[in-house]
Design a protein that fits this description.
With 416 residues, the protein is of the alpha/beta class. Helices cover 31% and strands 25% of the residues. It has helices at 22-31, 48-58, 84-87, 97-104, 123-131, 162-172, 188-199, 231-243, 259-267, 305-312, 331-338, 368-380, 391-394, 400-406; strands spanning 3-7, 13-17, 38-42, 63-66, 70-73, 81-82, 106-110, 135-139, 142-146, 154-156, 178-182, 203-205, 211-215, 224-226, 247-251, 271-275, 278-282, 292-293, 318-322, 342-346, 349-353, 362-364, 384-388, 410-414. Strand 20 and strand 21 form a beta hairpin. Helix 1 (22-31) runs parallel beside helix 7, helix 5 (123-131) packs parallel to helix 6 (162-172) and helix 10 (305-312) runs parallel beside helix 12. The structure holds uridine-diphosphate-N-acetylglucosamine. Uridine-diphosphate-N-acetylglucosamine is lined by residues 23, 26, 91-92, 118, 120-125, 159, 161-164, 185, 189, 302-303, 325-326.
């Protein structure tokens, strides 16, 4: 298992180019299951979760060629099962459920189970498929769904679920009639998927709002589409500029997707200005502590909560960080405390009292975004930090240590 070793104290300066978004690429890849024709997708990030998705799709008979730009063909689907071994390493494997039922009339997908950040059920995905006429049974840890042809339905999501909205949008594109998704999630990744599906001939309107209308068609054709930039990776580098008292040009990002974060970082005293091809992000003279509450898009993203907490750990005052999306997303807190942070958890909130200095320590990454938070803390900590279980970071950040080194960080990956 690799670990990352960081010697803190370097200000980060220079340019970083943002990769394609993991959370946009995953549903777009599974959308290829909806057509017999060969799709071309570009700006695919080089990540472990992408490789896991390739494994999952190849196991179904899908052909995939290429790296950053791929050709993907689901001409023949030989197997409509997502096995436990793959689903347990990547919950987003559930994204094959909607496309498989829509195209093949059946799917057998392992139930994801819990994960480090909470129970994360998929009941809303299942209920929506049932609303569309699918029979769904749970057997031996698997979701077994069947429907000769799904029927359009009026669906109401109790919560705006991101992958749930994507799954059911993909199920509805080949359904008989019109499906309306109410209280749909509004994330940019959903808009990216809708655009890809429209390129395949699907009829979808309202993506990006909380009501999405999809009128089913009988077949879809090839699409040629690009993945949007990763707003979470961009946000992580923006926070890296602030926490290290640096200045970074974040290239290739979409600032419209980052408004909640940009506003928050400006409140902390940072300067963020548009430049050609991206944003110039500069640390302020002092880090003002701010309160943060995670909310589904366009609110402050839960996927940046851990990172902003590392930043607030060295703020000048008191910050209350409230997590409303996942019930157990404070695993990074105990590790930050080991580095000298002053944080207490009260229910769904973390009370962060800024300290002047964090100190290097041996710490452990617990999930993807927690890993990013610990790297940020390590960048500013006095001394050396060793972060183990770093495999989590490779699921969602392309070459993070290379990108940080290029900005001046003293960071290396060590094989254990
Ligand atoms: C996606 C993102 C993840 C991000 C999250 C919230 C991908 C691949 N992953 O995860 O990075 O942190 O959105 O922005 O895009 N819920 C239910 N029942 C369901 C589905 C969800 O109760 O059937 C709950 C969840 O437990 C959670 C909330 O709804 O409390 C939102 O989760 P959801 O939007 O579904 O997250 P994911 O799609 O799994």
């Amino acid at each position: 298992m690799d670990k990352i070793v960081v010697r803190g104290g370097k200000s980060l300066h220079g340019n970083v180019t943002i990769s394609g978004a993991k959370n946009a690429a995953l549903p777009v890849l599974t959308a290829a299951l909806l057509t017999e024709e060969t799709c071309t997708f570009s700006n695919i990030p080089d990540l472990v979760d992408i490789k896991t998705t390739y494994k999952l799709l190849r196991n179904m008979g899908v052909q995939i060629e290429g790296n950053s730009t791929i050709q993907i063909s689901a001409e023949k689907i030989t197997n409509s099962e997502a096995p436990y071994d793959l689903v347990k390493t990547m919950r987003a494997s559930i994204l094959v459920l909607g496309p498989l039922v829509a195209r093949m009339g059946k799917a057998r997908v392992s139930l994801p189970g819990g994960c480090a950040i909470g129970a994360r059920p998929v009941n809303l995905h299942i209920k929506a498929l049932q609303d569309m006429g699918a029979s769904v049974e749970l057997h031996g840890g698997y979701i077994e769904a069947k429907a000769d042809r799904l029927k359009g339905a009026d669906i109401y999501f109790d919560l705006p679920t991101v992958t749930g909205t994507e799954n059911i949008m993909m199920a509805a594109v080949l359904a008989d009639g019109t499906t309306v998704l109410n209280n749909a999630a509004r994330e940019p990744e959903i808009v990216n998927l809708a655009e890809v599906l429209r390129g395949m001939g699907a009829k979808i309107s309202g993506a990006g709002t909380d009501v999405i209308t999809i009128t089913g068609v009988t077949s879809l054709k090839a699409a040629d589409a690009s993945i949007i930039p990763d707003r979470i990776e961009a946000g992580t580098f923006m926070i890296a500029a602030g926490i290290t008292n640096g200045e970074i040009n974040i290239l290739g990002c979409n600032s419209q997707h980052l408004e909640a974060l940009i506003n928050k970082l400006r409140d902390t005293g940072m300067t963020i200005a548009p430049i050609d091809g991206g944003l110039k992000v500069s640390a302020g003279p002092k880090i003002h502590s701010v309160d943060v509450k995670t909310i589904p898009y366009p609110g402050f993203p839960t996927d940046l909560q851990a990172q902003i907490m590392a930043y607030m750990a060295i703020g000048s005052g008191l910050s209350v960080i409230t997590e409303t999306v996942f019930e157990n997303r404070f695993m990074h807190v105990s590790e930050l405390i080991r580095m000298g942070a002053d944080i207490t958890i009260q229910g769904g909130s973390a009370i962060v009292r800024g300290v002047p200095t964090l100190y290097g320590a041996q710490i452990m990454a617990t999930d993807l975004r927690a890993s990013a938070s610990l790297i940020l803390a390590a960048l500013v900590a006095e001394g050396t930090t060793e972060i183990s279980r770093i495999y989590h970071i490779d699921r969602g950040y392309e070459g993070i240590e290379k990108k940080l080194s290029a900005l001046g960080a003293d960071i290396k990956r060590v094989k254990q």
